[in-house]
Specification:
This protein is mostly helical. Helix content is about 65%, strand content about 0%. α4 packs antiparallel against α6, α7 packs parallel to α10 and α9 runs antiparallel to α10. The longest helix is centred in the first third of the chain and has 25 residues.
């Protein structure tokens, strides 16, 4: 792990007050760069949290937004594997991320999407919940997914789709990623009305709002110094 610090602060003359800018520089925390182990832990933990959420949503009959929401719609309509559909849908977004966001972000996103696809594919054989109320799935799932997405975002990764677009909008235009994500997710969930019962769509909208609020509060420019 490497630590980057600012240039040394010159010592003021005895008896003279230290300038405010010097006080801020002296008290500022050093910028800590993420190491390979920290990135690997965050990518796996974030993908796992979202994977658990996807399994909860599938059992409760809920949806989510972005490419995962489209994958859910196709999964419910065709019975095809959610993990395989999700991985395939995200392929076009890698080009956008590679061109506009960067190679490191694209590679980490590819790894995260691949891990999430594997977790959702094999996870149901490892964990099963006998009873799950859709309200609990919406609230707990929204918070779990928001936490997982936050882990990935702070380590220059995402779960593809609208997350790539929302993070790009925040960096480019200063629009909070949570607000962009919430708007896209609610639109995608609303489009699922033709195949999913209304009450499940309503719970899914609640989940999207919970996740969006969590990200809007927790993921703001300048609040996190790790790189």
């Amino acid at each position: 792990m490497s630590i980057t610090t600012s240039s040394p602060v010159s010592e003021p003359e005895l008896g003279s007050p230290m300038p405010a800018t010097h006080v801020a520089a002296a008290n500022a925390d050093p910028l800590v760069k993420h190491g390979l182990y920290e990135d690997a832990q965050a990518l796996f933990s974030g993908s796992l949290f979202v994977g658990i959420t996807m399994m909860m949503y599938a059992q409760a009959g809920l949806l989510t937004g972005s490419t995962a929401g489209l994958a859910f719609v196709l999964h419910y309509a065709t019975g095809w594997s959610f993990g395989a559909i999700y991985f395939a849908i995200n392929i076009p977004f890698y080009w956008f991320a590679w061109k506009f966001v960067g190679k490191e972000f694209t590679i980490k996103t590819f790894v995260s999407v691949a891990m999430l696809s594997l977790i959702t594919e094999f996870g149901p054989g490892l964990i099963h919940i006998d009873y799950l109320h859709p309200a609990f799935a919406a609230i707990a799932g929204g918070l779990l997914m928001g936490t997982g997405v936050l882990f990935l975002a702070r380590h220059k990764s995402s779960l593809g789709g609208a997350t790539i677009v929302s993070l790009y909008a925040q960096d480019k235009w200063g629009i909070p990623a949570g607000k962009v994500q919430m708007a896209i997710d609610c639109v995608v969930v609303a489009l699922a009305l033709w195949i999913v019962p209304f009450d499940r769509v309503a719970w899914s909208v609640l989940a999207a709002v919970v996740m969006g609020i969590f990200l809007a509060v927790s993921h703001r420019p300048g609040r996190y110094a790790g790189k």
